[in-house]
Queue: 3 jobs
Job 1
Amino acid sequence: MADTSGNEDWNVVIAPDSPWWRLHLGEVWRYRDLFRELVVRDLTATYKQTILGPIWVLIQPLITSIMFAVIFGMVARMALPGIPALLFYMSAIVPWSLFSGVINKTSATLASNAPLMTKVYFPRLIPPLSSMTSTSFTFFVQLALFFVFAAAYRLSGSYAWSPGTALLMLPALILLEMMLAFGTGLIVASLTTRYKDLRFLIGFAVQLLMYMSPVIFPLAKVAPDSPVRPVLEANPLTPVIEGFRGALLGTYMDWSTLWYSLAFGTVVLIAGLALFQRAHRSYADVV
């Protein structure tokens, strides 16, 4: 409403020409109620009108782990000996689900929130941040499922599960993976505003990336002189997935390789933030 006295007292300034590195995190905090509502919306909408509801959070990684354990662990003998195949594959599938889930949801934030983003002002980082948060919540539930099965194996005496002090690296591994996934998701979300084909390719690309990561087989199974080895080592997810196995199962892990993932993730995150800040300014013109 206009001020009839002629004095204008504005408390919100929308300036599209601000540089990309000004993320306005203070505004994100002021809009925390909207952030919370979007997180709740993502969590409830995913399994709305389903028979099993939130139980799918547990069923999906469990079924996938069982299938991988039978096909690749027992038949193809790709799992490490001495470790139950179910735990071996669950220790990689759970973090992989976090990575793929954050990318898929973050990359679709501009398209899925178009009606809201073209009509109402709010910090544009809130939708991708809320998508990452809801996916992270699912990840921690699935990670708890892994610990339940690991404890069950230990109590039954069939596997002496003892990850050791490497378990302390788990928070760093989660942070690294979220950096890689969130940055990649922002890049894809920015590019899909102009190149709509990417939204059809992202699901296929993420699935293909799983076979280029040590999810099905550990890096130790690949010979040093194999032509596949350099491809796996160039993948920044390789140290992260191997690190999750090292932290959760106590397998051998060269922790110094995480510096490569950290450097790669930092570059990807900065590039994603820069592209996203640039893309959302003209989003209403191309949507």
Job 2
Amino acid sequence: MKAQDILNHFKSNGSWVNWEKTVDQILFGDPKVEVNGIAVSWMPTFSNLSKAVDEGCNIFITHEALFAAKIDDTGNIIDCPIVKDLHARWIAGKRKLEKDDIWIKKMEWLEEKNLTVIRCHDFWDSYPDIGVHGAWAKWLGYTKPPIKVDNYYELHEIQETTLEELCKEILEKIRPLGQDSIQVIGDLDKKISRITLGTGAASNYRDMHAFGGEAIILTDDGTLLWESGQWAKDTGIPLIIVNHSLSEEPGMRSLAKYLKKIFPDIPVLQIPVGCIFKCIY
């Protein structure tokens, strides 16, 4: 089996993806390389990439963008995986880099290790039931079918509780993934029986509010608090904010299981990321 066969599987089974514009593609490496092992992780950091190589994997499937680059003598980017990535293309822009920039070091390292990096974002975000938002809902204990689903959002009916108790319940669910605190904006005594759940950086609090939830769970990358925080205080609709990476960790676990099922003869390694920050008390 070759690296391209993995991407071809995504294309054959992801009817919800616009394959002309998607970020899901081979970001680095040889599409024709024979697959020895597949590593799955939310983010292609040096440590995660190194773990994959150490474990004998020559394919790295990432959910988020790969930041690596080559430059000319004046520091202009001449080759960069994110140029292929519509979500991150703007970051490259007209940026100039120094020769010791970490993006350049990462590109050199990838070339040395002959690692092929495939992005699986749009395919898995909206994969029914076990994709990113479905896996996140189940991790939080929302096992009944959602009332409404649209792209990155789900509306769930829960047993009525206060906002404070709801946050405590969520916190207990996410502690094993590495986050030991939650940001919340709103009246902690407010009664909640419907909650709108979101994942990713594209979660928009106004779109989520239209779902009809009495509180909104979204990610730190999905909001700007100087705007959304004021909106939450003015409307009385609470915002519960968790780390972007953490909210998608259950989806990375389910993706690894999915790949093991689809490609049973290929070793699959899931490299956890969880919450990418720590709170100091």
Job 3
Amino acid sequence: MIISASRRTDLPAFYTPWFIQRIEEGFCRWQNPFNPKQTKFVSLRPEDVTAFVFWSKNPKPLLPYLPLLDRYGYRYYFQYTLNSYPLFEPLLPELSERLAVFRKLSQQLGAERVVWRYDPIIISSATPFQHHLSTFDQLASSLEGAAGRVVISFFDYYPKLKLRFAALEQTSGIKLQDPFSTPQQLREFCQNLAEIAVKYGMEIFSCCEDLPEECGIQPGACIDGALLAAMGVDAMLPKDKGQRENCLCRISTDLGAYNTCRHNCLYCYANGSPKAVERRISCHDPADPYFCRIK
């Protein structure tokens, strides 16, 4: 069983105490976010966990506990989202701090176990294609040697996000642009991203995107059987049918819950509103086997 921690929230950034308590006790309890009456027991004993895949924009709180995971014999790697989006990610630590954490994590684990996620790519009047090429080059340069692969994806305009970006346009005049509406420009942009990645010694993959083959960006999987196999993990698991159509991830169990990430990034699909987040995190108890019990 692969444990995802977590697509729904930044578990390493905000809920490390709960996670370590669950590791020490060897289990947690899962609750269906859409049907709270549906629950199940999840063993977290080392012999029952194939691997952990951590998702985070700031895994710093978890770093002191990685030796503990190693002593117990867990296998794991990180999906580390690293952008430069002051407008869209106003509550994150300074970029310099997040870069330093990335490099420290890579030193501890090796570059192959820290995947850089440059996503979502938001094309807008404030962040056009050229902005991203410049930012991507700067970040890739800073991560040279610390990241062996980078994963990119484009912003998905979920219905729940329309009000947020409509409000942003009203207050700042920033307008979103659909990158797929200009295929030639998109193709050239992706080719340039691929060239930058190669320049800094990185493989580049896409997440849930249908990009032209000539872009030089191969489709990738975030919960990646091949990457796990390279780590010596036998992860011959089926594709996760609960994800989007183009998703290539292996099946996993997610420990997190929606409306619990305090980063409150403008583009986040997992949060409804800041008020919804406050209501939901008030249900979190670090000593409770449930991550965030819905009653």
